[in-house]
Each structure stands twice: as C-alpha cells, then as structure tokens.
Design a protein that fits this description.
The complex is a heterodimer of chains A (128) and B (355).
Chain A: E1 8-10, E2 15-19, E3 25-29, H1 31-37, E4 40-44, E5 51-52, E6 57-63, E7 67-71, E8 76-81, H2 84-87, H3 91-94, E9 103-107, H4 119-127
Antiparallel strand pairs in A: 1-2, 2-3, 3-9, 4-6, 5-8, 6-7, 8-9
Chain B: E1 2-3, H1 7-12, E2 16-20, E3 23-28, H2 32-41, E4 44-47, E5 52-57, H3 61-68, E6 81-88, E7 94-103, E8 106-111, H4 116-127, E9 133-136, E10 140-146, H5 150-155, E11 172-175, E12 178-181, E13 190-196, H6 197-209, E14 213-214, H7 217-226, H8 263-267, E15 276-282, E16 293-296, E17 299-309, E18 314-321, E19 328-333, E20 336-343
Parallel strand pairs in B: 1-3, 4-14
Antiparallel strand pairs in B: 2-3, 4-10, 5-8, 5-9, 6-7, 7-8, 10-13, 11-12, 12-13, 15-18, 15-20, 16-17, 16-19, 17-18, 19-20
Helix pairs in contact in B: 2-7
Classes of the chains: A alpha+beta (128), B alpha+beta (355).
C-alpha cells in the first residue's frame, strides 16, 4: 500500500477526514478504495449547506463496474464541494488524498474524531 | 475455486482476480478503460476458458441440434461456419445462448460458464434418442483476440495456420484439435481460438509478445454492451422468451416440419405485445445500472445492463421496455427522474431505432 499521509483519520469504510488549519474538515476516499473501485466515472456530491450526520450517506462514487456509497466521517454542515470532480472524476484515481477530495464541512462535534482510525489502524483494516 | 490454465500468467501480470461463477478470473490488469480502448483501437487478448466447451461423437448430430437448438443447424451443416442461437425449454424460456461451430464434419459448442451443469444434463438427456455422445472438453480453453489489429497480430503468431487469415465473419476451421473461429463478444474483428489447455500458455505468451494487450472480464462487459450483445443471466434468463430478448432473429421456423423444443410455446406468443430490449443512452449526469426503472409515454421497463461507455463517454444500457416507446424516456436513479434516449442496442454503430 502507498504511504498514507499522517494527518488523515479514517472510517473502516475507506473515507478519510483531514482537519484543516481553519478548523474545517476535508473529506475524501482512500487510495485503497479508489484501487478497489477501478476507473471512477461519476460522483454525486452533497449540496453546499446540507447537514450530514457521521457515518451516514454523504456522496455516491461510481466506477465503470459499480456504484458505492460514501459515508461522512464526521457530522457537520457542507461548506464546499470539489466541483472539479464533476467533469474529471478520474482525479480521485490519480490523487485520492489531494486533488480528489470530495467536500469540506464545518464539524458540529469534533469529539467524533476520536471514533476514527489512525493511518496505521486503517492500513490494518485494509490488509484483513 | 476453478482456475484456467492461464491462472498463473494472470497473477504474474498483476491482474485483479475475482470469483466469476466459481472460477477465479481476471477482472482487469491495469485499468478497465485502458483495456477497453486497446480493443477498440489496437488489439486485446482475453482468457475466456471459463466458458463451457462440448464436442459430440456419433449418431445423428444434425437431428439432435435440430431438436434442441432454436436456430436451424442446417444453415451451417454443409459449410465451415458458426451459428449463434438459444436453447429453450418447453415453455419457450431461454436456458442459455450459445455458439455451435461446424468444420471438417465436426460440431463444437460453446455455452456459458454458469449454465455448464444444466446444459450438460440437457444435452445428455436429449442426445440419447439420436445416438449422440456428449463430450465435455474440460481439457480445452478459449483465447479471444479482438480489435482492428487483431488479425495481423494473430498471423504474427507462428503456430497459427495462415489459412486463418481467410476466415470470413462466423467462419471457422479446425487445425488438428484446435478450432479457429471468426467470432467474438466485442463488436471488433478477430478470432476465438478454442484449443487444448496444453497449448494455451504458449499461444498466450506469443500473443503478448506480438503486442496483444491482456484484457479482463471488466472490459469484456463494456465492450459487449457497446456492441449490443446480450449477457445471459443479466439481459435474459429462463423467465424470458427470445422475442422479448432481441433474439427473435435467432428463431428459425422456415422449415415447418422441424419440431424444436419450445417451438409450440413460441407460436402462442403475441409478438406485437411482447416487451423489447432497446438500447438507452443517459442524457443527464449519472450511470445506468441493472434494475433501475424506466418510463416512456406508453409504458415502462427496466434497465438490464448498464455501465459507462468508454467509447461514447456517456452512460449506456440495455433495457427491456413495453412497446410504444418513441425517442425519449425517463430513468429513475435514486428517486430522481433523469432523461434517456432510446437507440439501437448497437451503440458503436449509433444506428437510430425506427419508432
């Protein structure tokens, strides 16, 4: 497995969350997830202003083969979505941790971060 | 799990392996889209050895096929050719679709993987009265080499008989126990090579050496979908008859004296009321998937196969719909009604369907 950036926290269902310096949270899917999915051809993102609950449906990602739900690692209000993904969803394959982010939210309960997996623990999940 | 003779080669090439009807098969080697495009633009090679292969010995084989096969075997019984068609049960339900090859006075049959046991029992049951022996060739495998450059690549493989170059569409020839046939499941030029497992690794390696790109079952599915070719189990099952499966053209009743299994049931079907399989293109953002509901001005239907078309760069599908559709309809994806266009299933020719 490729190196996972150390500042990320994960759900076992392969979503990552990063706390930015302004306190917002950026969310995407892992390198392992994009590899399992294969060529990504469509993403349905949440609406800006939408309120999401942790570990519930936030987005849909579709590869040629199948559609998968993306769960929100944290609760909060969506501030911004990555509109680049609308025309170039393949960015998720090439840059899952940087350019291929899904959305940013203002968290409503930062203590939820404690429920997420560290990069090491997430790696173990992927190898099981 | 069953493995083909090429299993080790797939793993060495770094293929993602999946369980396909209890066979460990490569779904893709690199990227499904790159593999798909290689077949459309150059040439690709597929290991499809999971398909079931049957030979026949003795007895009246023509009479046997006349009874169990809804297309008429007499179309090929005097020529070296292949014929596509379906096996029906007495109710006219499709048991399987298959290709029968005829060359050098021998018949060889290739049908699906998941129906292997059902078909073997069906053939054996009906072969008895014609004195025909059914021989499953589990000692054989199938390579498909497909694409605009496929024929030139095939001829660069030194073991392949040069006469293979003269094969016309659906033509076939035996070279000893190897069968070379101009058939495929991609809509492209090329051959399928039905050969002993002992020879298959060498042929595979040579094909890769001359530049054929290894292609997994993932791209095989998008290629066949763009070509408008049905997938048994997805687009038709035992609960469908041929007329609602775009396969009316494979039902040959021109010889009125021929009684094939399922014929009486088909004769009682009012084709003017049957649903039809139609091609659909999604005109909004999204991806069509099997099971999505469809509506049009005069009826409804359901998506059977759906995916992203790398060639058309949009989502396409096959759907079974009520008759009376015009050009446009709606598909329901996650409770949203999106616009679809009804077209000929042969997407890569983009022929408009007559209303």
């Amino acid at each position: 497995m490729k190196n996972i950036p150390g500042d990320l926290k994960f759900l076992s269902s392969h979503e990552w969350a990063r706390v930015e310096s302004d306190g917002t949270i950026t969310i995407g899917i892992s390198d392992h997830a994009q590899d399992l999915l294969g060529d990504i051809v469509f993403v349905e993102l949440p609406e800006v202003g939408q309120t999401l609950d942790a570990e519930t449906d936030a987005a849909i990602v579709e590869s040629v083969k199948a559609a998968s739900d993306v769960y929100s690692p944290l609760s909060g209000e969506v501030m911004e979505v990555n509109s680049l993904l609308e025309d170039q969803p393949e960015i998720i394959n090439s840059s899952p941790y940087e350019d291929g982010w899904f959305y940013k939210l203002t968290p409503s309960d930062l203590s939820e971060l404690d429920n997420l997996l560290s990069p090491e623990d997430y790696s173990d999940v992927c190898e099981d | 799990m069953n493995k083909t003779a090429l299993n080790k080669s797939h793993i060495e090439l770094g293929a993602k392996m999946v369980n396909f009807s209890n066979w460990e098969m490569p779904i893709s080697y690199t990227s499904l889209i790159e593999e798909h495009n290689a077949v459309r633009n150059t040439s690709g090679i597929f290991d499809v050895s999971h398909m079931s292969i049957f030979d026949f010995d003795g007895g009246n084989q023509i009479a046997f096929f006349e009874k169990i096969f809804a297309n008429d075997i007499k179309k090929i019984s005097r020529v070296n050719k292949a014929i596509y068609g379906v096996l029906l049960n007495e109710e006219g339900g499709i048991l399987d679709d298959l290709i029968i090859y005829h060359a050098n006075d021998k018949f060889r049959l290739v049908s699906n993987c998941s129906t292997r046991d059902q078909n073997r029992q069906w053939y054996e049951k009906h072969a008895v009265e014609f004195g025909v022996k059914v021989i499953e060739r589990s000692d054989m495998g199938i390579l498909a080499i497909q694409g605009p450059e496929a024929m030139s690549k095939i001829l660069a493989i030194k073991e392949i008989h040069a006469e293979a170059n003269n094969l016309q569409s659906f033509g076939c020839m035996f070279d000893d126990d190897r069968l070379y046939a101009k058939t495929g499941y991609t809509g492209e030029d090329g051959l399928e090579l039905i050969v002993p497992n002992m020879a298959i690794n060498d042929l595979w390696d040579q094909a890769l050496e001359v530049g054929c790109v290894p292609i997994g079952l993932g791209a095989r599915d998008t290629l066949r979908l763009e070509a408008g070719l049905n997938l048994y189990g997805n687009d038709m099952t035992i609960n469908n008859h041929p007329y609602e499966s775009n396969l009316g053209w494979t039902i040959d009743m021109s010889d009125e004296s021929r009684q094939f299994i399922g014929k009486d049931a088909l004769l009682s079907i009012d084709q003017s009321k049957s649903q039809k399989i139609v091609g659909i293109i999604l005109r909004d953002r999204g991806i069509l998937r099997s099971g999505y509901e469809i509506t049009h001005e005069q009826g409804k239907g359901e998506v059977l196969s759906g995916s992203f078309s790398p060639t058309l760069q949009s989502s396409i599908g096959l759907a079974r719909v009520d008759q009376g559709y015009q050009e446009n309809g709606k598909v329901f994806i996650r409770n949203k009604a999106l616009n679809i266009e009804f077209v000929s299933p042969r997407f890569i020719r983009k022929v408009k369907m007559q209303p």
